[in-house]
Write a structure and sequence with these properties.
The protein has 112 residues and is mainly α. The chain contains 7 helices and no strands. It has one domain. Helix 1 packs across helix 7 and helix 4 packs across helix 7. The chain is globular, with a radius of gyration of 17 Å. It starts with a helix and ends with a helix.
Length: 112
């Protein structure tokens, strides 16, 4: 019984830790979205005539790999954004590398 209780408690703690990490990732993604280029991604992407990132991601039309490619290479009127993302204070504070920062932004857009 005691071993079962310890195992259950350990599983619960691991789950809570994982949720806290996911919440942190989403929060950092939100900060990237709100602050990139000093005015935020939404300045362009929340305008109906421009690509709607949230809708494209949720519809499965913009996968993580393509999203990262556009951030790194730019596309059409979209400038390369990865350097701006990496300058974000939340990204720096968390010690995120490029992959982690892109993951955070993508995860935020999935939940937005």
């Amino acid at each position: 019984m005691k071993k079962t209780l310890i195992a259950a408690t350990s599983i619960a703690l691991i789950a809570l830790c994982g949720q806290a990490m996911a919440d942190e990732q989403i929060e950092i993604g939100k900060k990237i979205y709100e602050r990139a280029f000093g005015r935020g991604c939404g300045t362009c992407h929340d305008i109906a005539s421009n690509p709607q990132l949230t809708a494209l991601i949720k519809a499965g039309q913009l996968d993580r790999a393509k999203f990262e490619q556009v951030l790194k290479e730019g596309k059409g009127g979209m400038p390369k954004a990865i350097e701006e993302i990496m300058k974000n204070k939340a990204v720096e504070k968390a010690g995120y590398g490029e992959d982690q920062a892109v993951d955070a932004l993508y995860k935020y857009l999935e939940t937005k």
